[in-house]
Amino acid sequence: MCPAPTQQPSTQRTELRPPTAGPAVLRGLDRIPWAEIQDSSGSAAAVPALLGRVAGDDPEAALAALAELRGRVCQYGFVVEQATAATVPFLWELAQHPGVTCRAQIIRLLKNIADARQWESTAAVYPKLLNHRENPVVWERAARQAVRARRAALERLMADDDTEVTRVTSELARVIGE
Length: 178
Description:
By secondary structure, this protein is mainly α. It is built from eight helices and four strands, in the order ββααββαααααα.
């Protein structure tokens, strides 16, 4: 008689897998070539999994994932990366989803992205920066535009029952001129 097979522990890092649950908007993550674009750590391939953890129902894990995501797409709160603009629509959707536990922090990240002018300021002093193959000024402008493109959500967020969400939404609205 053969013994029944036993399950072996997985050697895969599950935290890097794309999300399989969460708000429906996250299902569109596979349309972005994350591995081909850059965040502050190099490849942005981990961004989908981080967004999935932000969408999860564990508040501590969501905050930790958002902190890591912030470091990857808006380092120091003012340096955006190539992957930032692609990440912004998902941040907007998560900010509006009532089941997401860190919505105010997401909106604060959107505000930081909308307010980012690090590369533009540097290029004003060092215009040769604009001649680089990878032009971070373009990334910065695209990220700000991505935040502004979803500004229709501001009204809904301003009417939210969570006072912290409405407060940070007001700050975001001031930054983007709404």
